[in-house]
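Re: pyridoxal-5'-phosphate structure - here you go.
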Amino acid sequence: MTRYAENYKAIETSTIYDEIIQKGKTYTSPSVKTFEAYSKPLSPVKGDGQYLWDVDGKKYIDLMAQNLCISVGYCHPLVNSEVKKQMDMLTHSTAMYVHSVAVHYAEELAARFPEGHDWVVHLVNSGAEAVDVAVMMARVYTGNNPMIALRTGYHGVQGPAMSLTGINTFHQNIPLDPGVLHVANPHPYRGIFGDAIDGYLGEIDRTIESSTSGEVAGFIVEPIQGFGGVIPMPEGYLPGAFERIRAAGGLCIVDEIQTGFSRTGDHFWGFQADDVVPDIIVLGKGIGNGFPLSAVVVKREVAEATAGKKWFNTYGSNPMSCAAGRAILRAIDEDGTMQNARETGAYLKGKLEALKDKFDVIGDVRGRGLMMGVELVTDRTSKKPAEAETARVVETAKDLGVVIGKGGALGNILRINPPLCIQKEDMDVVAEVLDSCFRNF
Ligand SMILES: Cc1ncc(COP(=O)(O)O)c(C=O)c1O
């Protein structure tokens, strides 16, 4: 007797666009349809490197990489072969056991962080989950509750992560975490204190003085705010903020979910641009090149404080995801993604600056490496957000074969975060497509 049927019939999947969209409308919860990117949704079917194809066979240059999940490229041969190898051995090993791939991965990941600290790795499945673990650790270690986060920061949409996110379109009307305090985000183009960092750092002081006992659990920050509008933290802000938080007994958490794994071009991690060392780092998205994986990397003594209580998570340290994670670290080195992010990102930035000289609707071009944002305004003096125009560019670019993101708390930022293997020739096409979008306003 065999345990399984001899010849399974393949499961059929429709690739007819209208049928897919209709099924999505009928069976998918409206709660997960609030983030759809296009008026006529994109239905992807295949990816290769920096390119994506839809169910009708149309090819796109992908500047969004599935919301930055695809780091080293779609269907990367090393990543896929390592995952397939693991899949044929053992698809899951629970955290009650110790799996060799997971511990090798933890060792290799920890080695990517600044020397002189005893880093340990806590593996989970999604960004918000990693953020929640990080905040829990900061609170337990310090014995304090207040968490300081930035306005327009994005850290996820469930649990404490939702409360940390500083954009109310992501806040359900339920009690938010009472310990979270938002302060003004340093934003040279649009921030309430202009382009000097003192006002923003002063806000941290004033918030600690007015809204806490004087003690905080920690501070969470993205080195470049991603969804919030591709806003790089200005030079000197992170060191100043870390100093203030540590003086109030708190820990510094850096959310590298978008900026990590060489995306910013000059460094492996976004925080390295400002020469600070966080206490806890949360990783997600590109860590898994599309496989569900995220991590909290934390100083041992902080993690040890939480070890008095049991912790369990069903899929954390899944060996297939960890096999992907190991392969991605190798691919980043062997493919030279950091150099490519630096060079191709700089090449693109030059093209975007040239478009800014040509079209008044572009108010600002910013970002680092392959994490770029273009802010559209109806008028450069008032800086009124050009939300409708941004939406139009995104839709038209798609028709012309380029997937580009729309974001920002005001909905007027074009987001460019492609797979890290994208080439300069692709950027030539992107610049032509954007030129045509702006020309035909
Ligand atoms: C900076 C940042 N932090 C946290 C998250 C939450 O990650 P996830 O969607 O995997 O929960 C995201 C997701 O977009 C993010 O961009």
